[in-house]
Write a structure and sequence with these properties.
Shape: globular
Radius of gyration: 25 Å
Number of helices: 21
Bound molecules: ligand BES, zinc ion
Strand order of the largest sheet: 7-6-10-4-3-13-15
Helix content: 25-40%
Oligomer: single chain
Distance between the termini: 30 Å
């Protein structure tokens, strides 16, 4: 059944007609149209659906009827209008028909204005009827298009809303150069639909081409074949020959320059950040080569980085060929470059072998976190590897202490929920720990061989958790029946918590910090007696995160005056310190706190800080800072932190 249609606009040729498209008869295969049937959150239907387990491979976060049609190629022609904060133009979709019937094509949209739709075959397209359905808070609005029989192409003229959830429009003062505006998109998980009408599901892969028209002084880059030599003339052409899911579609426009870092790697950034970025991330080429040696050829030609303004809501995003990176990891000492290893690793786990639905996110993030650690070990050695692993383990423990059981399950049931709201360390660190256990059990060499074959076996496919489990049953479980156990694997994937006897990564560099912290807390030694020379950010973080809930004003002052924590240039250290400061209402750090919350958009930092303010009776301050900073935040940052601060989504 199709979603209920609201029939807001109905166009046939140039004529505006009234009325609704007839919905097609119901499908027999339950898996065939669950998206279109997705009941409204909170409705009786929804409650009934919740009783059953989610179905493997079904995407509950898309309206698209992907069993009838598959988009195979997208051609975009968009004009970037900074004055109206609008992307405007045409999306042409090449579609493959999977069924003999001719039901309407249902696409995902969110806050798009659809001007016209044409459909047909080859170059011969004709205006067709279309209608927008009812808007769902999480999923947006289905766009239903009546297709002529045998139509294989659809061209949609449309424009985005200035509030598009997947686009941030920045004023010049929010950039490093302060002279030019900036725009970037963030499509994962379900925001591509806010800037392109398409089947916004990770199980659909498409190639794409694009023409992007910008003000002449700016450069456009995409998750495609960027060419640093291209003339800056305001018209940029892109091709993406490898098929990608929609959440990897990405565009940025700004005063961008390019600097090579290696043969296949380079960095795009605003001029003021270019040199520092290229230096900080100079090991990217070695990381790429190291990953290839173990997990097989890099399949995406080039690997470049794009350094965004600090309002970017994530640390990084693995857009193919061009990872988007927060500038807040440029610490000057490469201490935070695990982020680059992580986004690079997604070129195998995620971009090559992709989660089929957001329930399967752990296949992307857990595998990537595991690979990240391995890359870090390869490039920076054992000590760094152990520290990164141990910090990850502590993050996992913190989440396990904090979350409801249902959110500790790797194959998480997200029906009726907004993936942005459920973001946690579970898919990352529990997923990674699970793979680490497999490695420990069968040996590293065998496990690497398994991963190499896994990436090759499922290359350029989107798979569900159960596809992975089946593959594991066919391979490792057969090869190592005495070492692996299907029940335990089931427990890892489908049950909360972690199984008894799971590995517990630790680091010597940390264990010597525990007694020092203890002695200092007990008044046996002063801060000056703590030898912090040579401490890496990891050790600082471990030292600070292990502090008890409450510290005295005198203790806080002593820490701050000895180690200058309020002024720390390392944003991770600053964050750990600010959490302590907020918890203990240590006012000398509040200037930095306000500055931090107003200039950085990374939700990994913002959400815990705002939550801590709320939970310690400082909600008024949280609201004041939030209201002042809001205009500069990304829509996602506004949404998730409004929930924390006001208990709603800020609309
Ligand atoms: N793909 C994620 C970001 C993401 C996940 C966006 C889910 C939307 C929905 C990216 O690769 C990521 O994991 N970023 C982390 C990196 C960190 C774990 C090293 C981040 O931004 O903090
Ligand atoms: Zn990731």
């Amino acid at each position: 059944m199709l979603p209920r249609l609201l029939c807001t606009s109905f166009l046939f040729g140039a004529l505006a007609l009234g009325g609704c498209a007839k919905s097609e008869p119901e499908k027999k295969d339950e898996r065939a149209a669950p998206q279109a049937e997705a009941p409204k959150a909170g409705s009786d239907d929804k409650v009934a659906a919740d009783k059953k387990d989610p179905q493997s491979g079904v995407d509950y976060h898309s309206f698209a009827n992907t069993d009838d049609y598959r988009i195979e190629h997208l051609d975009l022609d968009l004009t970037v209008d900074f004055s109206r904060k609008v992307l405007e133009g045409e999306a042409r979709l090449e579609i493959k028909r999977l069924s003999k019937k001719n039901p309407p094509l249902v696409l995902d949209t969110r806050d798009l204005t659809i001007e016209s739709v044409e459909a047909g075959h080859g170059e011969r397209l004709e205006p067709v009827k279309f209608s927008l359905g009812e808007k769902d808070d999480h999923l947006g609005t289905p766009l239903s298009i009546k297709l002529p029989k045998n139509a294989t192409a659809v061209a949609i003229r449309y424009r985005t809303s200035p509030e598009a959830s997947g686009v941030q429009w920045l004023e010049p003062q929010q950039t490093a150069g302060k002279k030019h505006p900036f725009l970037f998109t963030q499509a994962q998980a379900i925001h591509a639909r806010s800037f392109v009408p398409l089947q916004d599901s990770p199980k659909v892969r498409m190639t794409y081409g694009a023409t992007i028209r910008t003000p002449k002084e700016l450069r456009a880059v995409m998750s495609a074949d960027n060419d640093p030599e291209t003339e800056k003339d305001g018209v940029y052409e892109f091709e993406m020959p490898q098929p990608i899911p929609s959440y990897l579609l990405a565009l940025a426009v700004g005063d961008l320059e390019f600097k090579p870092m290696g043969e296949r790697t380079g960095v795009y950034a605003e001029p003021a950040l270019l040199d520092a970025s290229a230096e900080e991330f100079e090991d990217t080429e070695s990381m790429l080569e190291a990953t290839e040696r173990v997990y097989g050829a890099y399949r995406w030609d080039r690997y470049d980085l794009l350094i965004l303004p600090p309002s970017f809501p994530f640390g990084g995003m693995e857009n193919p060929r061009l990872s988007f990176i927060t500038p807040t990891v440029i610490a000057g000492d490469k201490s935070l470059v695990a982020l680059i290893a992580h986004e690079l690793a997604h070129s195998w786990s995620g971009n090559l072998v992709t989660n089929a639905s957001w329930r399967d996110l752990w296949l992307n993030e857990g595998f990537t976190t595991y690979l990240t650690n391995r890359i870090m070990q390869n490039i920076y050695g054992d000590q760094r590897y152990k520290m990164e692993m141990a910090l990850g383990y502590d993050d996992l423990q913190a989440d396990l202490a904090d979350r409801e059981d249902r959110d500790e399950i790797m194959a998480i049931d997200l029906r009726g929920r907004d993936p942005d709201e459920v973001f946690s360390n579970i898919p990352y660190e529990k997923g990674s720990l699970f793979l680490y256990e497999l490695e420990q059990k069968i040996g590293r060499e065998a496990f690497d061989q398994f991963l190499l074959e896994y990436f090759n076996h499922f290359a350029f496919q989107s798979i569900a958790t159960e596809d992975f489990v089946d593959y594991l049953n066919q391979t490792l479980l057969k090869q190592y029946p005495e070492k692996l156990d299907a029940e335990r694997i089931h427990q890892w994937i489908y049950e909360p918590g972690i199984p008894q006897g799971a590995p517990h990564p630790q680091s010597d560099a940390f264990s010597k910090i525990d007694p020092l912290r203890q002695q200092w807390l007990g008044g046996e030694i002063s801060t000056k007696d703590i030898d912090t020379s040579g401490w890496t950010f990891h050790q600082w973080k471990y030292f600070l995160d292990g502090m008890p809930e409450k510290l005295s004003e005198a203790q806080l002052k002593e820490l701050d005056s000895t180690f200058d924590l309020t002024e720390s240039k390392n944003n991770e250290v600053a964050f750990s310190w600010l959490m302590i400061a907020v918890r203990n209402q240590y006012k000398p750090a509040y200037g930095r706190l306000e500055n931090f919350l107003s200039t950085i958009g990374r939700n990994k930092f913002l959400r815990p800080l705002y939550r801590e303010l709320e939970e310690t009776g400082q909600g008024e301050l949280a609201r004041r800072i939030f209201e002042n900073a809001k205009a500069g935040y990304h829509p996602l940052t506004v949404k998730v932190n409004s929930k924390v601060i006001y208990g709603d989504d800020g609309e």
